[in-house]
Design brief:
This protein is α+β, with helices and mostly antiparallel strands. β5 and β6 form a beta hairpin. It has a single domain, classed as Jelly Rolls, CATH 2.60.120.460. The protein has three helices and eight strands, in the order ββαββααββββ. The relative contact order is 0.35. The longest helix is centred in the middle third of the chain and has 14 residues. The chain has a five-stranded antiparallel sheet, with helices on one face. The protein has a three-stranded antiparallel sheet with strand order 2-7-4, sandwiched between helices. It is 23% helix and 35% strand.
Length: 155
């Protein structure tokens, strides 16, 4: 494959002068995707973030984070189906300490991600047009979840 045209914006440089951290507590209704984009944007406004990086980290082993399309809800529905097929509850798992969805939830977390990093410029996340930040709940009756939000950069 031959690349026909490549362009790059001029680099910008800022001195890292700020680290702002907050813990977002989330209660979900069970399996599925929960959009955290607005909460992350509110955190950046409160932190007076200008340019840097936003990190999200979930403090659990049975839920995860992802950046995914936000335009068509059927994408999230299909992804939930795909994860269920990859780690079904009825696969004879040995670890069932917290019920039949316990081990499948751990597998789904391992297949996805527990942290995300998003560049921030002019106080806004540099997400693509159809991208959003999601917590993926893998349990049918989850406990409260905690997501650490941390901005490192200039304010």
């Amino acid at each position: 494959m031959q690349v026909r045209a490549v362009s790059r914006s001029a680099p910008s440089t800022v001195a890292v002068s700020t680290v702002v951290t907050s813990v977002l507590t989330v209660q979900s209704n069970g399996r599925g995707f929960l959009d955290l984009t607005d909460e992350a944007a509110a955190f950046l406004r409160q932190a007076r973030a200008r340019e840097g990086a936003l990190t999200l980290f979930i403090r659990h082993t049975s839920a995860s984070l992802t950046i995914m399309e936000n335009a068509d809800p059927s994408v999230l529905q299909d992804l939930t189906t795909a994860l269920s097929r990859l780690a079904p509850e009825n696969a004879g798992w040995v670890h069932r300490a917290e019920g039949p969805d316990d081990m499948p939830a751990h597998i789904k977390t391992m297949l996805t991600s527990v942290s995300l990093q998003v560049p921030v410029r002019d106080g806004k996340m540099m997400l693509g047009t159809w991208q959003a930040l999601y917590l993926i709940e893998h349990r049918s009756r989850p406990p409260g979840r905690e997501v650490v939000l941390q901005f490192v950069g200039a304010t």
